[in-house]
Structure formats: structure tokens, C-alpha cells
């Protein structure tokens, strides 16, 4: 295998790609939802990155690596879980419809204090359940800390789309993790409010 | 895009994410002050961001992955090396650092806008140290979130122990410290964390900071400033806005 690339390419690969291995794995893990699958995706992505290392313009190594990881993950999903990608196409249509027709306030508007205490497992599950375009946008921003411009570059959409996807992803998470009980009894949220919420929210009862 | 023709709720996200320039941020602050519903949404978004940062479990790739990749691209890389013993470290580290520096120079990935020679060389070295640390089996020599452990550790290793502050409350917990070599002098480097990103902060006594205060090298953001005769260098792959928040917190923290 030693003939795969020059030592120059290897040094470049070591300085450009390897520092971002943890980020690469984290993104692949969130996109595929599985440890072993994520490692396969990262390995495939690294091979692609190594072959393409000469084309790296030297501007933003992390965004470049994550773009390749995302490609590899989508290719993997297409091969192994085409259903996940079919949903993406549908979603774009749904996204447009909802944008105009959505009511102003969601069904759940939990208090910030409840969100801050969100159970880790529930938070993780809620992110995992987000549709792919929302999930990758949220993960790139709130887990990996990319800025909007970088996310637009990695996911190949305009910044306005990044903003609306991020807002929607967060909105869904807020609705999911802010509720106190998994049971959907209408009284569950007020009970918790009474316990640790000294302020009374005006206008809460029509 | 101007705030006036964008949904205020989207702008709140951009505001919380530090994506607005000062003029637009000011406009959003006014809207937040006028609209309690919008202010409540901002609190929820910040609470969610905090919960993701503080509570979401971080899963690491298996150590096997780096080895698999090194094999796949046909390299006997630093990542494929077994963790070296402490005694064997210095030579290995010097080697790794020199490889990285060579790679940086050769790749042309380094550039500055109007910088003089001396400080840009320092910028290269702090970035190389940071990158080398990320590739090493352990990116720190002393691992502790307690500044009263980290600061004394530097005594005897470098002439003057650096200022060590605890920034956990600001979202930047201390991870530990290490000694880097900048030029020919050992230099104290503190390592902080933000989400899963590491931040290296090197304190160079008597050194000079970058005239412009910032640079981007090989995709890493670099900030530098002087304070009380010490040049501080901060390196991370964090977004520039987050890194500036860190630098500001460090500069203003007592201790």
C-alpha cells in the first residue's frame, strides 16, 4: 500500500485532514446514527480526501474535510438506507408548505429553565429523530461550532436556507425536550411550572 | 440581507449565534427589548444551546480508527504510533512538530495580510504546536481543570508560571497545560475546551503579538495580543466569533 501517494501527500494529509478526525467522526456518527457505520464512512472519506489532497485550496481545512465526510455519508446512506434520502426530497416540499402555513406559536413553548435541564438521553434521541437536512445543520452549528458561512459551504445551500433549517431544527428540539414528561397529559407542563417557576406567565390562559 | 426584511425569529438565532454585525445586533437588541415573546424565544434558544453544549454526550472514535486510516493511505503516521513513554517524548515531539512545520511551509497553506517576519513565524509555530498536540496521544502534559494544579506544574519547567484563570462559567473549561517550544524558548501553553474543540493559549514572556491581532493559518484561527509584557497567542478551529469571546473572557478574568 506504500505506493498510494508521495510522502509529500502524506505530510499534507497529516496536517490538513488528521487534525479534524474527531469532527469527521462526530458528523458521520450523527448522519449515520451508528458507530461502526460512522467509522466506515470516515475511512472512505479519508481515502477520498487523500486522493484529492492536491486540490485542497488551503483555506478552511475543517470545512473541506467535513464536506467530504458529508458526501461519503450521503453515498453510504444512498446505498444502505435509501429510505432516509427519499425523505429528504419530500421534506424540501414540506418545508416550503409549512413555511407559509405554520401557526405562529408551536404546540409547546416550554420555559427556558426546563430546556436547560433537558435529559441528555432525550436530547440525543430528539436530535437523532430530526430529518437529515435539519439534523446536519444543527449538528454542524451547535455540536461542531461552524459558523453559518461554513455550514452553507459544507451543505451546499444558501445562508438563508442554513438559517431557516437551523431555526426549524432548534424549534423542534425545544418542543421535544422542554416538556417534563414523555406522557402527553395536558397537565404535565403546568405541574412542573408550579414546582419551580415563581413567575406567572401573563397571557398564558386565553 | 437587512434585518428589516427578515423574520425576527430567524434573526434571534443569528443574534444568539454571533452572526450579526454590530449595527444589526443593535437592531435585534431593540426588538428583544420591545417584544417579550421574542425575548422568551431567545432564552429558549440559548437554553437549548447550553444543554447541547453541557449535556449532550460526546462519543469518541475508537483509537483503532486513526490506525485504520493511516494504513489505508499507506502511511506510518504519528497517529499510528503507540503512545510513547514520557522519557521518549521530546525527540518524537520535535520530529512531529518539524514534520508539521515542513508540511505547512510546503503546502503554501500559510498566509498573512501585511505581517512582518518575526511575529508571523511565531504564529506558524503556535499553530504547529496546536496541530501537533491534536495528533499526539495526549494533547496535554498536565491534565487538570484546577488552576491551582496547573499553575504550579509550570514552576521549574519554564522561568515564569503563566496567568491561569478558570473560565468554566463562561463555557471554556480548563483542560490542562503543556510546554511548547517557540523559537528556542520553552513556553507555557494552557489548553481550554469549548464543546469538543480544544483551544491552545500560549503565553510568551517578552514576546510580540501580531500587529493585526489575528490570522488564519491552515484553517485555524489565531488571535494574539500583548498584556503586561506578555504576548498571548490563541489557536483553535473554533469559529472566529467564539474564539474572540474566549479571548475576551481570558483578558477580563481576574487571577
Task: Write up what this structure looks like.
- The complex is a heterodimer of chains A (206) and B (255).
- Chain A is an all-alpha fold and 206 residues long.
- Chain A has helices spanning 7-16, 21-32, 35-51, 61-80, 82-101, 112-116, 120-128, 132-143, 148-155, 159-177, 188-196.
- Helix content of chain A is 68%, strand content 0%.
- The N and C termini of chain A lie far apart (71 Å).
- In chain A, 43% of the residues are buried.
- By secondary structure, chain B is an alpha+beta fold.
- Chain B folds into two domains: 3-55; 86-252, 2-Layer Sandwich (Phosphorylase Kinase, domain 1), CATH 3.30.200.
- Chain B has a seven-stranded antiparallel sheet, sandwiched between helices.
- In chain B, helix 1 runs parallel beside helix 3, helix 2 packs across helix 3 (36-55) and helix 5 crosses helix 6 (117-135).
- The model of chain B is unreliable at 77-95 and 101-117 (pLDDT under 50).
- At the A-B interface, helix 1, helix 2, helix 3, helix 4 and helix 6 of A face helix 1, helix 3, helix 4, helix 5 and helix 6 of B.
Amino acid at each position: 500500500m506504500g505506493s498510494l501517494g508521495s510522502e509529500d501527500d502524506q505530510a499534507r494529509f497529516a496536517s490538513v485532514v488528521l487534525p479534524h478526525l474527531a469532527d469527521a467522526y462526530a458528523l458521520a456518527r450523527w448522519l449515520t446514527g451508528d458507530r461502526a457505520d460512522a467509522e466506515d464512512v470516515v475511512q472512505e472519506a479519508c481515502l477520498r480526501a487523500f486522493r484529492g489532497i492536491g486540490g485542497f485550496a488551503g483555506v478552511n481545512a475543517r470545512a473541506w474535510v467535513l464536506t467530504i465526510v458529508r458526501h461519503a455519508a450521503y453515498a453510504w446512506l444512498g446505498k444502505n438506507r435509501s429510505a432516509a434520502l427519499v425523505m429528504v426530497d419530500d421534506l424540501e416540499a414540506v418545508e416550503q408548505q409549512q413555511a407559509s402555513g405554520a401557526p405562529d406559536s408551536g404546540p409547546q413553548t416550554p420555559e427556558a429553565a426546563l430546556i436547560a435541564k433537558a435529559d441528555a438521553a432525550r436530547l440525543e434521541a430528539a436530535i437523532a429523530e430530526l430529518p437529515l437536512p435539519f439534523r446536519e445543520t444543527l449538528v454542524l452549528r451547535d455540536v461542531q461550532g461552524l459558523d453559518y458561512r461554513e455550514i452553507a459551504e459544507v451543505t451546499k445551500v444558501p445562508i438563508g436556507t442554513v438559517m431557516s433549517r437551523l431555526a426549524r431544527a432548534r424549534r423542534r428540539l425545544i418542543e421535544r425536550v422542554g416538556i417534563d414528561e414523555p406522557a402527553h397529559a395536558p397537565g404535565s407542563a403546568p405541574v412542573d411550572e408550579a414546582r419551580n417557576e415563581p413567575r406567572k406567565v401573563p397571557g398564558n390562559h386565553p | 440581507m437587512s434585518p428589516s426584511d427578515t423574520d425576527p425569529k430567524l434573526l434571534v438565532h443569528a443574534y444568539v449565534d454571533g452572526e450579526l454585525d454590530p449595527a444589526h445586533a443593535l437592531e435585534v437588541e431593540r426588538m428583544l427589548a420591545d417584544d417579550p415573546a421574542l425575548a422568551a424565544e431567545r432564552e429558549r434558544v440559548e437554553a437549548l444551546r447550553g444543554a447541547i453544549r453541557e449535556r449532550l454526550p460526546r462519543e469518541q472514535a475508537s483509537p483503532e480508527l486513526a490506525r485504520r486510516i493511516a494504513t489505508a493511505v499507506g502511511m506510518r503516521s504519528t497517529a499510528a504510533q503507540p503512545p510513547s513513554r514520557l522519557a521518549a517524548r521530546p525527540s518524537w515531539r520535535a520530529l512531529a512538530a518539524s514534520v508539521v512545520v515542513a508540511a505547512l511551509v510546503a503546502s503554501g497553506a500559510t498566509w498573512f495580510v501585511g505581517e512582518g517576519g518575526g511575529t508571523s513565524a511565531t504564529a506558524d509555530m503556535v499553530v504547529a504546536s496546536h496541530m501537533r498536540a491534536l495528533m499526539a496521544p495526549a494533547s496535554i502534559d498536565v491534565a487538570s481543570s484546577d488552576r491551582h494544579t496547573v499553575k504550579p506544574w509550570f514552576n521549574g519547567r519554564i522561568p515564569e508560571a503563566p496567568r491561569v484563570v478558570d473560565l468554566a462559567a463562561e463555557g471554556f473549561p480548563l483542560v490542562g497545560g503543556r510546554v511548547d517550544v517557540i523559537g528556542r524558548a520553552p513556553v507555557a501553553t494552557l489548553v481550554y475546551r469549548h464543546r469538543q474543540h480544544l483551544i491552545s493559549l500560549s503565553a510568551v514572556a517578552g514576546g510580540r503579538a501580531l500587529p493585526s491581532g489575528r490570522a488564519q493559518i491552515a484553517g485555524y484561527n489565531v488571535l494574539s495580543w500583548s498584556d503586561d509584557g506578555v504576548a498571548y497567542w490563541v489557536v483553535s478551529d473554533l469559529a472566529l466569533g467564539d474564539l474572540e469571546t474566549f479571548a475576551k473572557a481570558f483578558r477580563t478574568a481576574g487571577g
